[in-house]
Amino acid sequence: NAGVTQTPKFQVLKTGQSMTLQCAQDMNHNSMYWYRQDPGMGLRLIYYSASEGTTDKGEVPNGYNVSRLNKREFSLRLESAAPSQTSVYFCASTRDSAVGYEQFFGPGTRLTVL
Amino acid sequence: QQQVKQSPQSLIVQKGGISIINCAYENTAFDYFPWYQQFPGKGPALLIAIRPDVSEKKEGRFTISFNKSAKQFSLHIMDSQPGDSATYFCAAEYNNRKLIWGLGTSLAVNP
Questions:
Q1: For burial by CB atoms within 10 Å, which of A92, A96, A107, B26 has the most?
Q2: A39 close contact with B: CB closer than 8 A
Q3: In Å, how far is A79's CA from the nearest CA of chain B?
Q4: A41, A50, A106 member nearest B103 (Cβ)
Q5: Would you say residue B106 has pLDDT above 70?
Q6: Sign of the dihedral defined by the CA atoms of residues A113, B44, B40, B11, in that order
Q7: In tens digits, what is the pLDDT along chain A, a chain of 114 residues?
Q8: B69 touching chain A per CB within 8 A
Q9: Do A43 and B89 touch (CB under 8 A)?
C-alpha cells in the first residue's frame, strides 16, 4: 500500500514551459486535492475533486488546470509556467474518520520556475 | 472571513514542557477543525481534530481546546519531546471538505 504518490519529486522549468504533475492514490478514496505550499503562506488549495469526473476550484486556481483521470489519478497541469508558481506542490486524498475526515498527503513536488 | 489566524509563528520549548499553539477564526460556519503535523521534506499528517460541539479532545499527549464563543482553538502538547519538533498547522473546513489553513507554527523542542 503506497498511499499517495507524486511524480516528479523535483522539477526546474523555464518561464513559459508547460508540465504536468502526476498524483495517484491506492486507498480507494473519492476525494483528491492539489495544494501549493510557500514559505510563510501555509497550504493553499489549488483544485479539488470530490469524485471521478468532477473538479472544483480552490483558493488559487489561476494558471493551473487539473484532470481527474480515474478514481486513482489526479493530475495538475501548468500550461505556461511563471516564476510565481515556484513552490512545493502537494497532492492529497481523503477518507472519513471518527470525527470528520483525514487528508493523506503525498511527499510533494518541488518546482522551480526560472 | 475565510481566514484562520495562527500564533505564534515559532516556538521553542524545553523537553518535558508544554507547547501551546493558538488559532482564531471569524466564520461561524466553520465546523471541523483539524491539526496537522509536518516534518521537513514530508507532507502534513493529521494529528488530532475536533468539532465545535465539544470543548476539548485529548489523544495521548495532544489536546485540542475549543472555545466556540471566542472563535478560538488551541493545541496543547504535554511533556514535549525532541521528536515533536516539526511545523504544526491548524485548519478549518469552509465548504464540503475544503480546508483553509493557518500559516503554521515551527516548534523546536530542546533536549
A1: A92
A2: no
A3: 25
A4: A41
A5: yes
A6: positive
A7: 789 999 999 999 999 999 999 999 999 999 999 999 998 888 999 999 999 989 999 999 999 999 998 999 999 999 999 999 999 999 999 988 877 889 999 999 999 999
A8: no
A9: yes
Residue B27's alpha-carbon distances to A103, B3, B92, in angstroms, are 22, 8, 10
Mean pLDDT, residues B22-51 taken together = 94
CA separation (Å) from B29 to A46, B92, B94, B96? 21, 10, 7, 11
Distance (Å, rounded) from C-alpha B90 to C-alpha B12?
18
Q: Which residues contact A32 (CB under 8 A, 6 or more apart)?
A: A23, A25, A48, A49, A68, A74, A91, A92, A93, A94
Q: Is the confidence at residue B1, as pLDDT, over 80?
A: no
| pLDDT tops 80 at residue B67 | yes
Flag if A48 and B46 touch (Cβ within 8 Å): no
Enumerate the residues of chain A whose CB falls inside 8 A of the CB of residue B6: 42
The answer to whether residue A2 neighbours chain B at the CB level (below 8 Å) is: no
The answer to whether A44 contacts chain B (CB < 8 Å) is: yes
Q: How far apart are CA A68 and CA A48, in angstroms?
A: 9
For residue A98, give every residue at least 6 positions away whose Cβ sits within 8 Å of its Cβ, in sequence order, or none: none
Cβ-defined contact of B102 to A42 (cutoff 8 Å): yes
Give the pLDDT of residue A72: 96
Instruction: Check whether B14 has a pLDDT greater than 70.
Output: yes
Q: What is the mean pLDDT of chain B?
A: 94
Rounded Cα gap, residues A39 and B58, in angstroms: 30
